């Protein structure tokens, strides 16, 4: 069973590996025991998951985000942060700003700072035309919902979990999609139960 932090880390490794990095490029990373669990997902990803978002592996912003994830996988967190920040600084369009801000959020020191960047990522994602981006919206709303939940803003958390669930049909019926869906459902259950408990105590 994954803890919340593990789920965040796991899904982003899968997303990065499946859309950006070739299988040969990640073989070294998979030696790291902390990410052994993504081996099967990564090896099956190269052809199946490219639909998810229109990643261009030659895009310099995508390359920087992939580099940041590689550094993070090797526990080089400051180097990862620098790569993500450079990606944000150099991002030029809505897609690049969406993906860069998503990864910048990963290396924030406080929950509020991470939430701010997660919201920024969603804002740029919503400006992207086409159905391809809709497969990412459940995950983006999940990030925001969890941020509000951690800050104790249960009503806003619930609203964002519900919004995440509204895009369920755009998730693939695979391990990644199920991972996101289970995170949404578990989060919605937590905040609903906590809200009910708080009401009963007042």
Structure description:
This protein has 202 residues and is mainly alpha-helical. It has one domain: Serine Threonine Protein Phosphatase 5, Tetratricopeptide repeat (Alpha Horseshoe). Helices cover 68% and strands 0% of the residues. The chain is built from 11 helices and no strands. The protein starts with a helix and ends with a helix.
Query: Tell me about the biggest sheet?
Result: none
- CATH domain fold name: Serine Threonine Protein Phosphatase 5, Tetratricopeptide repeat
Oligomerization: single chain
Class of secondary structure makeup: mainly alpha
Roughly how many Å is the radius of gyration? 17 Å
Average pLDDT works out at: 77
CATH superfamily: Tetratricopeptide repeat domain
End-to-end Cα distance, whole Å, is: 34 Å
Query: In sequence order, what are the helices and strands, one letter per element?
Result: HHHHHHHHHHH
Helix content: 55-70%
**Apparent shape:** globular
Number of strands: 0
Overall CATH architecture? Alpha Horseshoe
Q: How many H/I helical runs?
A: 11
What's the helix and strand layout?
Blueprint: H1 4-19, H2 23-26, H3 39-43, H4 45-48, H5 60-73, H6 77-90, H7 94-106, H8 111-125, H9 137-150, H10 154-165, H11 175-201
Helix pairs in contact: 1-5, 1-11, 5-6, 5-7, 6-7, 7-8, 8-9, 9-10, 9-11, 10-11
Summarize the structure.
The protein has helices at 4-19, 23-26, 39-43, 45-48, 60-73, 77-90, 94-106, 111-125, 137-150, 154-165, 175-201. It is an all-alpha fold and 202 residues long. Helix 7 (94-106) runs antiparallel to helix 8 and helix 9 runs parallel beside helix 11.
């Amino acid at each position: 069973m994954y803890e919340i932090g593990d789920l965040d880390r796991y899904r982003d490794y899968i997303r990065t590996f499946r859309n950006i990095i070739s299988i040969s490029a990640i073989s070294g990373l998979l030696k790291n025991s902390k990410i052994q669990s993504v081996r099967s997902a990564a090896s099956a990803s190269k052809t199946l998951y490219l639909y998810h978002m229109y990643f261009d592996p030659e895009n310099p912003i995508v390359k920087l985000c992939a580099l940041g994830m590689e550094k993070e996988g090797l526990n080089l967190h400051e180097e990862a942060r620098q790569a993500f920040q450079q990606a944000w600084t150099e991002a030029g369009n809505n897609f690049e700003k969406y993906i860069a801000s998503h990864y910048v959020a990963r290396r924030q020191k406080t929950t509020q700072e991470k939430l701010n960047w997660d919201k920024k990522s969603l804002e740029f994602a919503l400006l992207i035309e086409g159905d391809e981006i809709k497969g990412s919206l459940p995950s983006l709303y999940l990030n925001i919902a969890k941020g509000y939940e951690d800050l104790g803003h249960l009503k806003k958390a619930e609203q964002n979990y519900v919004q995440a669930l509204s895009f369920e049909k755009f998730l693939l019926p695979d391990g990644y999609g199920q991972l996101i869906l289970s995170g949404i459902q578990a989060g919605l259950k937590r905040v609903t139960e906590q809200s009910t408990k708080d009401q009963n105590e007042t």
